[in-house]
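Figure 6 in text form: structure in, sequence out.
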């Protein structure tokens, strides 16, 4: 989980900032902002789930 959060801090936040900047400068629809943010946050969630499942599999392989 730590790796996923660290990766999001390095790369995902840049995507979030770009989505917000585009929304503000291009006067986009609010839906564009929501979908843009949703994409980055869903990616973070998927990465966390994958990392937790990998930890579970590793734990059971030790037994």
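Output sequence:
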């Amino acid at each position: 989980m730590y790796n996923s959060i660290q990766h999001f801090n390095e790369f995902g936040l840049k995507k979030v900032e770009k989505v917000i900047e585009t929304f503000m400068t291009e006067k986009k629809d609010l839906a564009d902002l929501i979908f843009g943010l949703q994409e980055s946050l869903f990616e973070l969630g998927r990465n966390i789930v994958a990392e937790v499942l990998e930890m579970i599999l590793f734990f059971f392989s030790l037994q």
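Caption detail: Residues 30-62 form the longest helix (33 residues).
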